[in-house]
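User: For a reading group we're discussing how well predicted structures match intuition. Take Inactive metallocarboxypeptidase ECM14. Before you show the prediction, I'll give you the sequence so everyone sees exactly what went in.
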Amino acid sequence: MPHMSRIDNAETVASWDARDELLREQVVLHKTRRAGRFSSLLQALSAISKLRKHVSDRKLIGGRCGRPAMGGGNEDTVMQQQPLVTRPHHRSPWRVISDKVISKIWDLDHSTLSKSGSVPGVNWDEPPLTTKSRHGEDLVLRFNISTAEEADKLAEVANHMYLDVWDQTETWVDVRLAKDTLPHVLKQLPESMQHSHTALMQEKELQQAIYDTYPKPRLSSSAPASHGRDSIFTPSLNRGGSPANTAEHNIFFVDYQPLSVIEPWMRLLASLFTTHVRLVDIGTTFEGRNIPALRVGVHPTNGEEPSPPRKTVLITGGIHAREWISVSTVTYVAYSMITGYGKDPEITQLLEDFDWVFVPTINPDGYVYSWEHDRLWRKNRQSTPLRFCFGVDLDKSFPYRWDPSSAGNACSDGYAGEAALDGLEARALADWAHNETTNNNVAFVGLLDLHSYSQQVLYPYAYSCDAIPPSLENLEELAVGLTKAIRINSGHSFMARQACEGNVARFESSGGSALDYFYHDVGVRYAYQVKLRDRGAYGFLLPKEHIVPSGREMLEAVLYFGRYVDGEFEGWEAGKKRKLRSQRGW
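Assistant: Thanks. Here is the predicted 3D structure of Inactive metallocarboxypeptidase ECM14, as structure tokens, for the group to look at:
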């Protein structure tokens, strides 16, 4: 029987605590859809804590558990240590108790919890095995372009060889390609481009960057010290401080989250904050999933006179499946504004003056596919005329200036479908917006469509720089203000420009975008596409450490957006004075 030192003792306790905490977090994350039992869960967790204290007080050591006594014993006590991974079919007394209590509350089969410490639908293992086979030998290159001829030739090669163009400006183009195709690509490019490229990610770096975006099991010591055990599922009802501080102390934003976690989380928020949050359904995807959204706002209660159309701002993310940071940023801003109501005067007024509709992902099918099969998947998952090619680029599927030239190749990442609104999720969003304005007394005044990457704030039009939007001056002014708000918050520089300049038409058509559709057809006066962090170092594979900083800077941009649209600066103050006079009966 080996001796256990004080260090071994501490490590065993840490492993025990890590298992307990991981179990608690996973169960709550996956099962928050049962929000109606929230109070029962709190009671159960309290009971578990008491039971755990009772177990600890009785110093249950030895046996199958092998857990050391918590204090009070001889430091040199000889104990038999049983590693957690060597006898998985034996469960400790504490594990038995916690499994039974949790399964009782959530109607779970405790055997599924005891085998791996995880809940079905929440995958804490490595990314899909297909990741290596798909992208194990890929790399990402940035080609510098200096002439129109170079850009045209690179676009021709990219289209011919089905290269994955990640992003582009007038001066550079980021391309993902298999390493063994690089010589063939260079052979077709002009001499001036033979050495005009740099590697943003080598093949091993790309694969590692993909792995790093998936959640990993967290030990107790790796979580921020300020996180309470319940903070992952319990929005702060009493905690002071700014909304941004509240959000960044929530474990939900430590990792990117799959749809199986996001949807229950949204339901929980709607059930907890019934005064100003409502869960709405935008429509149904090709694979039958709902497109969930949170409508956040406080409506006036005076029903004596007909109310004017409710001013509404739409904030969307995830129209392209692989742009995970856009999904997390939408949820961060939504959470901050929801929990900030009644605490932050600015947020409170914005929720009284507007409705804010948050759609974390317009493309749930593609988002799930990017988690389970291909991290770099872009389109939705509907069938196409080509049997083995799936998906439509939803951001090219809207009817305004839909481009038939994008309908030629169903295997292309930029495939726009056979006709306008062929993308089912794009059609669902368009139908929902039309119904809101026609039947539900809604006036859309703002759109913030979040994407990644390149740090740009883009305004209409995307389809052509020859078309001048009627409100160009206001669009430019607000875009510059948004970039300034971001820079003041984080020091990161975003560029404000017309969307047609931010998208190089040589590489892909920009017709049929959500940006142009909402601005022109729906009549949204302030419509923007915001490309979030970074500028290419990680591209679509932004490390999870950027979730909170990206959310913080976007929250500041959203607050500035609200101030401007609500009559910034003089109009904002005048509005507050009018409201105060009305409340006092003056």
